[in-house]
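user: can you give me the structure for this one chain? tokens are fine.
assistant: on it. calling the predictor now.
[tool input]
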Amino acid sequence: MFKPWFIWSALFNSARLSTALQILIFLPLTLATISRQAFLLLSLMLTIHSLIHGTMSLLWGSHVLSLLQVPVHPFLLLVSFNIFSSTPNPYLLLAADWWGTLLTWSGPLFIVMEGLSSLLVVQKLGQEAKRLVDYGEAYQFGLLIATSITYVASAWWIVDSYPTAASSPLSSTLLGVAITAFLFLTVIGFVLRRTNIIESSGLALFIAYNVWLCGFDQKSFTDPASSYAPLLPNLMPHLQTLLNFVINTLPKPVLIALLYRLTILHLASGILPTIGADSWEPEEGAEDSWSERPVSMDPLLHGFYLDLLVQTSSFTRLLLTYRQSIFVTVYSHLLLLDHSSQIWWRWMNIFFTLIIWSIELTVSSEDITNEKNWKVD
């Protein structure tokens, strides 16, 4: 016999999954079947709703809200369809255009967040790997094998993507510069003893992923607007068309980029609160709390790190509370980009991450290096 808590947990998780699937389907469906402005209006309404939902969750904190919002997204979709079934209100069109402009100009912000989060995650992996090595040679051997596989997989991924990713002289030049810069920074990091093979292999995989997206074969999936039969005049008889749309015409590169971006942001949000605690290695069995930090630390510095930890934890809580809003805005931005725009954003992402990594490797003082002993090979 199922316990009540198990039933409620399954119900709440199903509601969250249903909400995510609705967003995944409704936004590209509106873009393909009606117009760009209808898509922007639906995206704006979903964003406003998610902000209201996040604020209520922050104040109330009840899981019942997950159930209550399930019918809201279909209602907003029908509202969008109804608005554009006739001549839309000019103010609604103006709001949609402004929202589209805001999403377009938000591109650099998304790239910065993705690049910083990726670098933070691979550095955290390097930190955890260093701790595992201390437990014995078996862990060290396993990490060496995993790192070798990662390097080989990254190299194969780049070579396999090269014909399409380097389709123009400029793209091939950027690819060569990116790989050269990565190898150069890896050597510098090893010489200065400020990185390890886990971190380096993680960044190699990150570069390979972005290069692969730059060369993703656009012919491997169908243009959503090419095989569409109009849904507005008669929605019910076209359920088969909707099913075909879901199966065959969802933009796969966008979904992959969305999944990676949301995952890396979520992982980084969990790492941020631990950054202030990594500078001091606690004794085994000791509580990892700020009250247990060395008393010899300058009180002003101690207060600074304590304030930083509190602010970071609050920022992480806000990110997790409004993750649905981030989901909608990131997805909408990716859907707005055409293939050529996505390629240039990918190259910017690669070089921005490499620049931040180079600054982190070369600017850190020797004292910081000694504190971050997980960065030493």
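assistant: here you go. Residues 105-218+338-364 form one domain. The longest helix spans residues 4-33.
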